[in-house]
Design goal:
About 50% of the residues lie in helices and about 15% in strands. By secondary structure, the chain is an alpha/beta fold. The two termini are about 20 Å apart. InterPro entries: AAA_dom, DNA_Partitioning_ATPase, P-loop_NTPase.
Length: about 270
């Protein structure tokens, strides 16, 4: 059964979507794992980047179709044998209205994605969920459907505050809805590697979240990542390979942590 990971922070623009796409990409292409990327952001940036990178000319389905039909199977776009995605489109902004009009019980409203993912979990090794940076029905459903959260920490104060709020909200979801989700790691995204503000933010994050939770791998501010937004993900030259190596390090550390959690869970 797939390990399901939501990539989160309640601060926008910290790199959640890029990390969601790239860890899915590396696991599928370089680690030969079966991966499903679920785009829950109505802006659909993760869907656009995957489509641009793999030559998918047009996306004719949306996760919202799956919510309305009660099944996600028909919404899955098989990008490659190992990488599948459930894309989002602007219409998905109407999710709150749909839930309130069609699902009576509050617990069922926040658990709707979990109900839809359960029948397809056995088809994948990993499922990643990309969500908007808001306290909303989108994040509630993603948390309830996930086993773990990978928190993205851009090295700035507002991102650190967003990460703290995210962890507090996880506890709220556990207390009120019995959400069963663990933090697999806090991943630093550096704006200026070696800079005073970046290092100070990482030090504070280590004090707040604990040394074991802040990942040793970091995402550096690479120009190639911005270029991929235009060209799609490539692996043609040394700059591409350097960028891929960064995310492979993240993937390997994350998988090691996941394996540790899974092993520990067997003996509880």
């Amino acid at each position: 059964m797939a390990q399901t990971i939501v990539v989160g922070n309640f601060k926008g623009g910290v790199g959640k979507t890029k990390v969601s796409v790239m860890v899915s990409w590396e696991l599928a292409y370089e680690r030969n794992k079966k991966v499903l990327l679920v785009d829950m952001d109505p802006q659909g940036n993760a869907s656009t980047l995957i489509a641009r990178s793999t030559g998918v000319p047009e996306i004719n389905t949306s996760i919202f179709d799956g919510f309305k039909n009660g099944s996600l199977k028909e919404c899955i776009v098989e990008v490659t044998d190992n990488l599948h995605m459930i894309p989002a489109q602007v219409s998905f902004k109407n999710l709150p209205k749909f839930l309130y009009q069609n699902v009576k019980e509050e617990i069922d409203q926040v658990s709707y994605l979990k109900k839809l993912l359960d029948p397809i979990r056995d088809d994948y090794d990993y499922i990643f969920i990309d969500v908007p940076p808001t306290i909303s029905d989108f994040s509630d459903n993603a948390m309830m459907a996930s086993d773990y959260v990978l928190i993205i920490l851009q090295a700035q104060e507002l991102s650190l505050e967003g990460a703290e709020t995210y962890v507090k909200y996880l506890q709220f979801m556990a207390d009120n809805y019995d959400a069963n989700i663990q933090v697999v790691g806090v991943l630093p995204v550096l704006l200026r590697p070696g800079g005073r503000v970046d290092m100070s933010t990482i030090e504070r994050a280590t004090e707040i979240f604990g040394e074991d939770n802040v990942m040793k791998s970091v995402i550096k501010h690479l120009e190639r990542l911005k270029a991929w937004d235009i060209t799609g993900i490539t692996n043609n030259d040394q700059h591409d390979k350097k960028a891929h190596r960064v995310f492979l390090d993240v993937v390997d550390e994350m998988v090691e942590k996941l394996d540790h959690f899974e092993e520990a869970g067997k003996y509880e």
